[in-house]
Amino acid sequence: MAAGDSAHRESLAADLHGWAEGRRRKAFLFLVACLGAGAAPHWLGPLRGLMPALGCALVLGGYSLHTLLAARDLGVDALGELPPGELPRVDVLVAARDEETVIARLVESVAALDYPQDRVSLWVMDDGSLDHTPQILENLAASHRFLQVRRRPRDSGGGKSAALNALLPQLQGDWLLVLDADASLASDLLQRLQPQLRSPHWGALQLRKAVVHAGANLLTRAQALEMAFDAQMQEGRIVRGGIGELRGNGQFLRRQVLQACGGFNEDTVTDDLDLSFRLLLGGYPIGLVWNPPVQEEPVTQWSALLRQRQRWAEGGLQRFFDYWPALLSDRLSRRQQLDLLVFFLLQYVLPVATVGDLLASLGWRQWPLLWPLSISTLTLSALALGLAGRRRSDGPPLPESSGLHLLLANTYLLHWFLVIPWVSFKMATRPKRLVWAKTSHAGLPVTS
Fold this sequence. Notes:
Distance between the termini: 37 Å
CATH topology of the largest domain: Spore Coat Polysaccharide Biosynthesis Protein SpsA, Chain A
Oligomer: single chain
Strand content: 5-15%
Largest sheet: 7 strands, mixed
Order of helices and strands: HHHEHEHEHEHHEHEHHEHHHHH
């Protein structure tokens, strides 16, 4: 694999250097352009002004529908058994801060993996925890030889990315499995993933994220279906020659590939989304694994969910602002560039343009004109939620894909039409201070 080639590594590192400059200016230009795009059709009048939205609905909706229907499990050829000493070595990485409610369960989940003990290690970076996390880890390390605990001061800076980077020089595994502290894994996960881990094709793999206790309330049900919808759409994008993306928890990274990409970016709020683009530009494909998934806790309060989604939205936009020169270069195929363009327009441009459309509607005293594109997008998401919810799911069961659940989940997805414009405005008008805004974990029981 080219990941070990030092010239390639130096070239990639040079191309990635310095693109994060001027994010605030780029965010301002993005905000103005999207608001203008939403308002401009009103100059054409109430009838002709519908034509751009209708055209976009047909093109973007058609492409997205084709992508969704292409989704399927990424098949891999079965491989013969290897002697235990020749199985890929896996280092599990966790950056933990104030995780006393879940860290012991995570360690026991890794301990229960059906894999040779000398081929898997768990590395935990205690990032200045102020609760009982250090004491719990110390006790666990005394009884689990595979557990390696490191610590750094709470004010060290760089967030989760820096905490993980501090572990990298000590690792020798073929693959790195990055987990959140609330993660839980099926005991046979590594055995079932042998075809993917032994394939030279993948630079990284993302496990589908499965929400535990999804039936607790409407918010948790919606999150469970949202995660399944995201995995369903990613499968389609990969099958059609587009791109896969990392989702933080449950991501497998080939160690040499991560080194070639310069490790984790400490100048971003979402290391997973940023690394997705670094892998893409380096020519390292990302695969999606539907089963087995990684289990994680849902966010149970709207206030916490909105804080989490604001961070995701900011990180998602940051990577486009940082890497846009290379995204337009010959590093990517035309299919990959088209895939990125379509989902950039639907995920980020449309919500902000909708605000411009509404403001123009008030100013011109006309009806909004982007509704054909908005309706096609919501129809597509409803279909995706339904298809994803009906698939066989290992681990926590997905909520029943009834009409009511799909309606509630689709309505829930409208929060992105609030989050994206608000985050775009903040990025354009306020200076950014990078902080680790972690999600609190309650220690909910997981599915065995």
